[in-house]
Sequence to fold (93 residues):
Amino acid sequence: MRTELNSSTKYAELLRSNQWLEKRKQILIRDNYRCLSCGSSYGLEVHHRQYILASKNGDFLKPWKYANLNLITLCSRCHQVGHKKFKVPVFNV
Ligand SMILES: [Zn+2]
Ligand SMILES: [Zn+2]
Fold:
């Protein structure tokens, strides 16, 4: 059985892949390199509005497989606030 720590470490590795960097760039361009919450252009990160767990192997869906609709640009400050405020739902698919 997979521990939570293992699967999040693995997930962090996925966020360094070229597929994700390419997807991330698309989202930043779409959002005009601005935080959607406060309009800042500093320290931008792309946030998944929801995480989807693929039931087949118990891993998260690859981060670049998400619809662009589920990804938004936030600055690091708003991103942290957002994560404290909202529990990101995880769905089984
Ligand atoms: Zn912001
Ligand atoms: Zn996030």
Remarks:
- The two ends are 19 Å apart (CA to CA).
- The mean pLDDT is 84.
- The longest helix spans residues 18-30.
